[in-house]
Design a protein that fits this description.
This protein is 53% helix and 13% strand. The protein is an alpha+beta fold and 138 residues long. The protein is globular, with a radius of gyration of 15 Å. It starts with a helix and ends with a helix.
């Protein structure tokens, strides 16, 4: 199976997850250093960000919601790299890369390339590396 077929099968749509949890997702022009923020039951995501960044922002905002952390602060660009081990980042990684899906992609489909795994799950290579460490693959 090629990586794009695996992407169709295993990639999580964080916007859909937000909608399933009663949260609307809108895109808007925001300051260049802001990925997004939550306003009530709505996530506002910077429309100038690449798709991978938007996906991460929505997953991160979902994790804040699930963990009942301060949702009033905007998500800034450097958030992940500065706080790799925060609860919000850990949960955002799990939302985008569920353990059962990661394990299946590696064990059943034999995908071991960081780049290929990043493509399959629609995340950055940094997220892949951190998630694989969490799951004891690295």
């Amino acid at each position: 199976m090629n990586i794009y077929a695996l992407q169709q099968r295993y990639s999580v749509d964080p916007a859909r997850e937000a909608i399933l949890n009663g949260i609307h997702v809108l895109e808007s022009e925001l300051n260049s250093d802001i990925c997004g923020y939550q306003e009530g039951s709505c996530f506002v995501v910077n429309n100038s960000m690449p798709t991978i960044r938007k996906r991460w922002c929505i997953a991160y905002l979902l994790s804040r919601t699930f963990l009942n952390t301060d949702v009033s602060k905007p998500v800034v660009l450097a958030h992940f790299s500065k706080e790799c081990d925060s609860k919000e980042n850990t949960l955002a990684m799990a939302v985008l890369m569920p353990s059962t899906s990661v394990n299946t992609v590696i064990e059943k489909h034999g995908v071991t390339s960081i780049t290929d795994i990043a493509i399959i799950f629609g995340v950055s290579k940094l997220v892949v590396v951190e998630r694989l460490k969490q799951l004891d693959w690295l």
